[in-house]
Specification:
Elements lengths: L4 E4 L8 E6 L6 H12 L3 E7 L8 E3 L2 E3 L2 E6 L11 E7 L8 H15 L3 E9 L11 E5 L2 H9 L3 E2 L7 H13 L3 E8 L6 H14 L8 H5 L1 H15 L13
Parallel strand pairs: 2-7, 2-8, 8-11, 9-10
Antiparallel strand pairs: 1-3, 3-6, 4-5, 6-7, 9-11
Helix pairs in contact: 1-5, 2-4
Length: about 250
């Protein structure tokens, strides 16, 4: 049995909520995008996912220590046709151990259903081939239900027909499909050799188009890409004594 559990610091009504799930992957774009969404929309930390098997570390922001996996939320109009009235983000800078990923995903899906979240959107990176300048990077999608497939088509997101997605997002997608929960994954082409803020900006740009009720400006990610990447490199260097390097070949 896994000891994965969700703690809510404050009880917030998240019914009809869009839930964004952002764990690190290729180019760390999901973590970068998750941070940007939280900061842009000024979301508040409302809870955490904890486990004795998570990396023993604290993430310090504005002088406040937090667990490695946090939950943020805020009252926002969001979702297709403004169909959600709130947005929540589950994010981390560290990939959880493989042996607890299934338990982690089950806890997230169970919690999101209990809270009445309407749509789950996972942000991911996929290995890019050739030139990946911000002008020609593509964003692909995978959907768990027919409704979500129609959503991808509506926003001109090419559906991935063949391939493999491992880790948290892979397990989340097939479990959501089995449970008939509405979930999509947005995959942006990214460089696996360094934190790719430009790829993160591309995925945020697409998400912004999909959510007309809110405004997530990706421009700062493009303008500050070098600065963001340097900060993340420093952050990863600081974590080396206690943290193994993140795998760079998880998604193919």
């Amino acid at each position: 049995m896994s000891d994965v559990s969700i703690i809510e610091y404050k009880k917030i009504d998240l019914s009809n909520c869009l839930l964004v799930v952002a764990f690190p992957t290729v180019g760390l774009i999901s973590s970068i995008a998750g941070h940007h969404i939280v900061q842009s929309l000024r979301l508040k930390e409302i809870g955490a996912i904890i486990s004795s098997q998570f990396m023993p570390t604290a993430v310090v922001h504005d002088g406040y220590p937090s667990p490695p996996v946090r939950i943020y939320a805020g009252k926002k109009i969001c979702g297709p046709q403004d169909s959600c009235d709130q947005i929540a983000v589950i994010m981390s800078e560290f990939m959880p151990p493989y042996e607890i990923i299934t338990s982690l995903v089950n806890e997230i899906l169970s919690w999101s259903k209990k809270k009445g979240c309407r749509i789950i959107t996972a942000l991911e990176g996929t290995h890019a081939e050739g030139d990946i300048s911000e002008k020609n990077v593509r964003v692909f999608g995978v959907a768990s239900t027919k409704l979500m497939k129609e959503m991808l088509k509506k926003y001109d997101i090419k559906e991935t027909k063949e391939g493999m997605i491992t880790g948290v997002t892979g397990v989340l997608l097939y479990n959501a499909a089995l449970l008939k929960q509405d979930a999509i994954c947005l995959l942006a082409q990214a460089n696996a050799d360094y934190p790719d803020s430009r790829a993160a900006a591309n995925i945020v740009t697409k998400l912004d188009i999909m959510l007309p009720g809110i405004k997530i400006d990706a421009k700062p990610l493009y303008e500050q890409a070098d600065e963001i990447e340097q900060k993340i490199r420093k952050f990863l260097e600081q974590s080396k004594p206690t943290a193994p390097p993140l795998p760079s070949n998880m998604y193919r």
